[in-house]
Amino acid sequence: MSHSYFTRKLLTIKDKNIYFPPDYLKEVNLNGLTSFIFKGILSYQPTHCERCGTLFDSKFKKHRFKTSRIVIPKVSLHDTFLELKKQRYYCGHSQSTFTLKTSLVEKNRLIS
Ligand SMILES: [Zn+2]
Questions:
Q1: Ligand 1: distance of its center to the CA of 21 in Å?
Q2: Are the CB atoms for 65 and 85 separated by under 8 Å?
Q3: Stated pTM of the model
């Protein structure tokens, strides 16, 4: 089992498309309190374009990331956040970009 597996267990994250890079945990001081920031990456191959509905093919390209900070349940009584880098894709059919979705964000509060 990888450290991503155990980190998802610890943070009760069910989305298996989220993985954690080697330097994934940061301890920061927010308003005088120690807080944890976990850095995660959301990446998978989409089935189709969200704009035009075309099925995934060679005209789809990875296109940077969109990062958002999500409040997740406290770890050891410290405020804990997930800084999630979501993979964006470019679709050559509709010449538009879209961001991959995770089930995690709907359930948790999002700080933009
Ligand atoms: Zn498209």
A1: 30
A2: yes
A3: 0.86
Domain range holding 42?
3-111
CA of 58 to the centre of ligand 1 (A): 12
Q: Encode pLDDT of 26-70 as tens digits.
A: 999 988 999 999 999 999 999 999 999 999 999 999 999 999 999
**Considering its fold, how many domains does the chain have in total?**
1
* Interval between CA 99 and ligand 1 midpoint (Å): 12
How many angstroms separate the CA atoms of 16 and 44, rounded?
Answer: 10
Measure 98 CA to ligand 1 centroid, in angstroms. Answer: 9
| Alpha-carbon 92 to chain mean position | 24
Helices (H), the chain: 3-10, 103-107
